[in-house]
Amino acid sequence: MLFNSLEFLCIFLPVTLTAIGVAARFHSRLLILSIVCLASAVFYGIYSVWHLALLCGMIALNWILAAEVERSARYALTIGVVLNLAVLVVFKYTGFALRQIFAANVAIPFWAISFPLAISFYTFHQISFLVDVWRKRARRPDLLTYATYVLLFPQLIAGPIVRYSEVAFQLGRQVPVFVRARFFRIGFILLVLGLGKKVLIADALGPDVDAAFANAFNLSTVRAWQAAIGFGFQIYFDFSGYTDMAIGMALMMGLRLPRNFNAPYRAATVSEFWRRWHMTLSRFLRDYLFKSLGGSRRGLARNLVNLMIVMLLGGLWHGPNWTFVVWGGLHGVYLVAHRLWSKFSPLSLPIPIAWLLTYLCVTLAWVFFRAPNFEIARGVLGRMIIPTDGPSSDTAAIMIGIAAALTWLAPQARALAVQHHHSRVVAFLIGAIASASVLTMISTGHADAFIYFAF
Fold this sequence. Notes:
Order of helices and strands: HHHHHHHHHHHHHHHHHHHH
Membrane topology: Multi-pass membrane protein
Number of helices: 20
Keywords: Acyltransferase, Alginate biosynthesis, Cell membrane, Membrane, Transferase, Transmembrane, Transmembrane helix
Organism: Bradyrhizobium zhengyangense
Transmembrane segments: 6-24, 31-61, 73-91, 103-123, 143-162, 183-205, 225-251, 300-318, 353-369, 425-453
Pathway: Glycan biosynthesis; alginate biosynthesis
Shape: globular
């Protein structure tokens, strides 16, 4: 069941919100959390009951270990982190490792053919919880509260990566304040804007991008650039659209989740890009990996090595494919180059040039992220670099133009929702976007999965 499906929007979400609203009238924290937890379990269980059983087992195990971690038992923290990572590695990377060691046609164990949905995200959630309990930044809650935190359906599948300390107070209130009118309005606006980003922009860009990458060695230079730039916009509108919907739905339930995007393509350096793109992942990698490796406290050389390690592992986290590792490695090289330039160069690039250079570097790296293998990536990059005549796509050009205008000229969804949720103009705009999105969903007859659902 996808966020951009009619079944979710017209049945699951209204029923869940209605149940939460009714339960809120009884001022029962237990009842509200039980409804949210049960609804989230049903949402995830629709994909796979077996994967739900695995997730519930991991929730119970981490909650039990947290009791010892809270008593400052380092062994419990070590066991918890190792077990979480082991489950992630076994289910997500076993097939990849066997193919590298033996052969492409090696028999893959059945449990490694299709790894559990959202395992990358809920693994990070639970590791951050154990570490924060160890660092005394969070206290171990009751099992229902912890299960609700991990299972919470708006953020379960693809984030934002939420620290328990960020929602502990909200979930732990003795007198719940779920379903506030102001939150509901803002959340509904974000939900519709996110849906529009996904259905009207990202999904419209997808077919041309897919066609180009499927025909990588027969592209013109213009068409190859359309494919790379188009995918950059596709993944931005797809993932930020998901995030807007997730944060919006959480607000409609009365919960505030952290921001995950802040106009990343307006960044003038790659460092700034990562402060604006998938912000909760960047923060997780910084606080739980980069700093654990020593951060920038042990000299410049160690700092640069740590940056490369973090970005390589961040790339691998996205999926069991070497192209993701190269994508992460490229961003590591960019970050290292920026750090060295900032430290040793007396020159400062003009903002327009710095922005253009950053955007070009990010766009080139997206080719590896999108390509299923190095051969396809080489084909697209080769056509981008070596001038080649041939046709372009008018549809891609139009959609890229629309996406670019929205990216660099339109206000951010969050600002629009927070500042103008009483505006009649915004109400009309939201109605138009909702209508266009629903009509598009009905006309296509299917819902395209969010890109980050694969991670």
